[in-house]
């Protein structure tokens, strides 16, 4: 679980160190950054346009 209010700061932090991540893992880290940014945008929209204040957590599963 991850609080949506922290999605943007986390995405920014991962993006800031992306160049120092081992090449084999950069694609996966980039995908995670994009996911966090998308969730932040959706959360911002929902907070303004829809009464979804209870939806404030990201649930994820890592498979591989």
From TrEMBL:
Which Pfam families does UniProt cross-reference here? DUF7691
Q: Which positions fall inside the DUF7691 domain?
A: 2-59
Name the UniProt record assigns to this protein? DUF7691 domain-containing protein
Species of origin reads: Streptomyces althioticus subsp. attaecolombicae
Q: What is the lineage of its organism?
A: Bacteria, Bacillati, Actinomycetota, Actinomycetes, Kitasatosporales
């Amino acid at each position: 679980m991850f609080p949506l209010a922290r999605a943007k700061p986390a995405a920014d932090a991962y993006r800031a160190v992306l160049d120092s991540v081992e090449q084999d893992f950069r694609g996966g880290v980039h995908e995670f950054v994009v996911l966090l940014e998308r969730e932040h945008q959706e959360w911002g929209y929902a907070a303004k346009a829809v009464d979804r204040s209870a939806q404030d957590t990201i649930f994820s599963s890592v498979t591989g």
